[in-house]
Amino acid sequence: MVCDPQRFPMSYFRFSFIIKRLLPASIVLVVFCGGIVSRVSAQLLEIHTGSAIPRDVREMYNKGLEYLAKSQDDSGAWTGGQSGPGVTGMAVMCFLASGEDPNFGQYAGHIRRGLRNIISQQNESTGFYGSSMYHHGFAMLGMAEAYGAVDDRDLWPQAGNQNQRSIGQSLELAVRAAITSQKKNPLKAWRYSPDATDADTSVSGAVLVGLLAARNAGIEVPDESIDGAIAYYVSNTAPSGQVAYSGGLGGFNESLARISIGNLVYAIARRKELPEYKATLKYLSDRIQGGSAGHGGVEYQHYYQAQALFQGDLDVWEKWNKNLIRQLKSSQQPDGSFQGSHGVSVSTTLSLLALAVNYRLLPIYER
Q1: Residue 139: in which H helix or E strand, if any?
Q2: Are the C-beta atoms of residues 159 and 201 closer than 8 Å to each other?
Q3: Closest by CA position to 321, among listed 308, 331, 333, 334
Q4: How does residue 52 score in pLDDT terms, banded at 50, 70 and 90?
Q5: Per-residue pLDDT reduced to its tens digit, 270-289
Q6: Of 53, 174, 246, 328, which sees the most CB atoms within 10 A?
Q7: pLDDT at 10
Q8: Do both 212 and 309 map to the same domain?
C-alpha cells in the first residue's frame, strides 16, 4: 500500500498504528510512506480488543454520546459547570473512542466543531490553550488523539481566519508551550499557570499524558522533558505507593486519583521497571474497592484508575471494571449524562472515558 502524505496528514508511525489497528493478526503489511519502508505486524486481536464489549457498556456509552451531541453549543464547546478547551478535548475523545468513523460517521460534525473550538482558543504566539495548564493538558491530549484520524481538509468550512491551523500545527504549538513552561519551572513539572515555579502531581499528570500522547502521535518531544517530569513523580511517590500532591504538601495521604496518575505516567512513559511504578500498582491492586478519591472527585479517580489498572494488570482491571459498570449504570441520568462535583459536562466526559477503556480504540489506551 502507498500512502499519500497530503491525503493522510500524519507521521509514518501514526499511519502504521492505524493500519495495525485494522488488520487481523496474521497479516503483515509493507507500508511505503514518504520513502520509508517497514513491515507492520498487527497485534493479536484478542490482545488488542479483548472480549466483546459488554452490552451495558455499549448502551451507557451510546446514551452518553447522544447527550454530548445534544449539549454541544454552536461554538463547538460544552458548558454546564466547568468549561473550556480541556473539557472540549475530553468530549472529542469520547466521540473518537466510540468506534464511529471520525470523518464520515454520525458524530463527525461534532468532532470537527470541537476541534475548531479548541484551536480557536489557542494563543497563536505561545501555543497555550485556555486559562490553565489543566485545560492545556487535556486539550493537547484530545488534539493528539485526533491527529492522524481526522482529515484536516474537512476541518474548516471556509478559509480566511488566521487561527485556522491544522491539527498537527496546533498540536506542535501546544507541545512547544508545555515544554517552554516546564523549562521555566525548577521542579521540571507544571502548575496552573504556564509561568508557575511550583508544581503539583494532578496538573502535571494532565500535561505529561498530553505530551506522551503527542509523542506517540509522532510529534517531537525531547527525552529530557519526559525524564524531568518522571523525576518529579518519583520524588513525590512514597515507598508505600502513595503519591503526594505538591512537594509533600498535604502529605502522602490516600488519594487513589493521584496514585493512579503516578502509576499511569510511569506506564505510558515506559518506566515500569521503577520501584515507584511497582509500589503504586500494588497500592491500587490492593484497593480495587473503596478508598479515597482525593480532592478531584470520584469521576476524576475513575478516569485515571481505569487507565492505570488497564495498563498495569488486566485481571485486576477486569474485576474493577465490572464494579465500575455497575456503579455507572445506577448513576447515569435518563438523558445519558452523569452528575458530579465539577458539573455535568466534566462528569459525563470523565465517566465515558473511564468506560472507553473497554473499546481500546484510543491510541493512549493501547497497552
Answers
A1: helix 133-146
A2: no
A3: 308
A4: confident
A5: 999 999 999 999 999 999 88
A6: 174
A7: 40
A8: yes
**Does 33 share its domain with 65?**
no
Burial label for 342, CB within 10 Å (0-12, 13-18, 19+), is middle
240 lies in the same domain as 185? yes
What gap in Å lies between CA 34 and CA 49, rounded to an integer?
30
Q: What is the pTM of this model?
A: 0.86
Shared domain check, 64 and 13: no
- Give the C-alpha separation, 259 to 284, whole Å: 7
Separation of first and last alpha carbons in the chain: 26
Q: Note whether 35 and 97 are same-domain residues.
A: no
β-strands 28-33, 36-41: how paired?
antiparallel
With CA atoms as reference, report the closest residue to 361 among 155, 58, 94: 94
Q: Tens digits of per-residue pLDDT, 207-247?
A: 999 999 999 999 999 999 999 999 999 999 999 999 999 87
CATH number at residue 289: 1.50.10.20
Same domain, 310 and 190: yes
Kindly report the number of other CB atoms within 10 A of residue 164's CB atom: 17
Please give the angle made by the CA atoms of 302, 303 and 309, to the nearest 5 degrees: 75
Judgement on whether residues 123 and 250 belong to the same structural domain of the protein: yes
68, burial (CB in 10 Å: exposed 0-12, middle 13-18, buried 19+) = buried
Specify the number of domains making up the chain. 2
Q: 24 and 138, same structural domain? A: no
Domain interval for residue 9: 1-48
Please compute the mean of the pLDDT values over residues 2-29 and round it to a whole number.
38
Measured CA to CA in angstroms, residue 58 lies from 226, 283, 323, 329, 365 at distances of 35, 30, 16, 11, 17
Q: Which residue type sits at 287?
A: R
Give 291-344 pLDDT, tens digit per residue. Answer: 665 666 799 999 999 999 999 999 999 999 999 999 999 999 999 999 988 889
